[in-house]
Each structure stands twice: as structure tokens, then as C-alpha cells.
Amino acid sequence: MGPRDLAAHSKGGRRTPRTEVMFGPPGHAYVYFTYGMHWCLNFVTREAGVPQAVLVRALEPGPGVDRCGGPGLVTRALGIDRELNGAPLRPPDLYVVDDGAPRRRVFLTPRVGVQGTGAWEKRLLRYVVDSPALSRPLPRALALTRRRGR
Which residues fall within 8 angstroms of residue 40, CB to CB, at 6 or more apart? Predict the structure, then answer.
């Protein structure tokens, strides 16, 4: 949602040295430090000049990586810090692969950690699959619809 999103770093079109990567081309890492202790990894998703990015909040276990349920744990497990800010999403440094696993249903929930942003707190902008690796489990009602096959 970019500048319209009151929970985004780019709200109102705010452009700072920290957010500059989001204003660049898609397919790059936007890495920032938060709470004085955690790095967070985002993927820039829109064309240059349109500041939008997606936060990576969790990873399922894989070779060399344990369950990572939270954005700070994701970056710690992958050894990501400011050095990868602005890096293109391509091998060998940082890339995403399709592991060939069967597709799973995607659920929409409110985002985590965006309190104080009015109506944006409730917007269904967190896309997740039901997994024990989630940083925050699916709300019970959604988990139940999954078990019932809806």
C-alpha cells in the first residue's frame, strides 16, 4: 500500500536514507535495524518510485536453518544485516526458491506489530500458510476453517 499505509515506513511518501531502497527497483532487499536489536528483511516489490516492500516474518526449517518464527530470528538464522540492504535478490547472496512442496492454502490475517495505526491495524495484509514456523499462530477461527477444508 506504500505511502497510503500508515503502518509502512514509506507512509506519506516519507523518503529517508533508511527507506531509500524501497523507492528503488523491485527485487532488492530492504534491511533495517529495529528496537535497537533486530535486523528485519523485506523484499522491494514495486517499480522504482513506488515504495512498497514485504516483510519476511518466518521461515520453515530447511537445510542449515531451524524454525524461525519472527523477523529478527529470520535474519539471525540467515546471517543478514545491513550489508545486504539494497542487494539484488539473486544468487549467490540472497534469493528465494520454490522447494516444489505441494501448494498450501494462504490465509489473510491482520499484521503483527502495527499498533497505533488506526484502521491499518485491522487490515488483512499478512499472508501466511498454516505452519508451526509462524511468528504468531493463525487465529483459532482460521485454523478451524482449514481443518474443515474451507
Answer: 31, 32, 33, 34, 55, 71, 72, 75
